[in-house]
């Protein structure tokens, strides 16, 4: 017997429940960072690894864009590439490099991915593979972690400014911009998914996609926690904090 599809509002409720339970605002590494319990070297490791993920985001959006047949949807989605790569003004990647510059990381090393944890590479690659290979409704639904981004960004910025004197407000410009971009993008993607995921099978793909994306973000923090909070577990070739910790 075929399952009965959820109503659009019930689907949204299920998606929001996934974010409540599985988004990385609950991860111990985020909590330590928010509460001022990390050293400079640990923050540097986070920023370096997160840049590697951020650099995959426009490639992910380009992969999705290449699969979209509807011109209106393509026009809406390509704004994400502009937001990250920049156009007349610097984009998200440039603003993230301002953060890594401000922390004292070598820009060449950051862009080249030198010192990035193996698990970060695997997680980012898995995300890119997912959006290339899974049905379009799932690929777009994987972006819905943006529904929960504003709250974690607000926590992160407030905690960093309150607890880490080596971080200045201007180095956090990436997050200021995302406070407006993320809700805009999430609202659009959510409305599209609620409209397009009409069958129970399609809705299950959507729910699984958001769970997968939460797992990607959680796995990256797991790796950081294992390498830089639990001492002595930095893998060969990964960034090693110096005396600044």
UniProtKB/TrEMBL annotation:
GO molecular function terms noted in the UniProt entry: pyrroloquinoline-quinone synthase activity
Top EC class for this record: oxidoreductase
GO terms for biological process, alphabetical: pyrroloquinoline quinone biosynthetic process
Pfam family of the protein (one): TENA_THI-4
Associated pathway: Cofactor biosynthesis; pyrroloquinoline quinone biosynthesis
Stretches assigned to the Thiaminase-2/PQQC domain: 13-222
Catalyzed reactions per annotation: 6-(2-amino-2-carboxyethyl)-7,8-dioxo-1,2,3,4,7,8-hexahydroquinoline-2,4-dicarboxylate + 3 O2 = pyrroloquinoline quinone + 2 H2O2 + 2 H2O + H(+)
EC id: 1.3.3.11
UniProt keywords, alphabetically: Oxidoreductase, PQQ biosynthesis
HAMAP family: PQQ_syn_PqqC (MF_00654)
Similarity-based family: Belongs to the PqqC family.
Annotated protein name in UniProt: Pyrroloquinoline-quinone synthase
Species of provenance: Polyangium spumosum
Protein encoded by which gene: pqqC
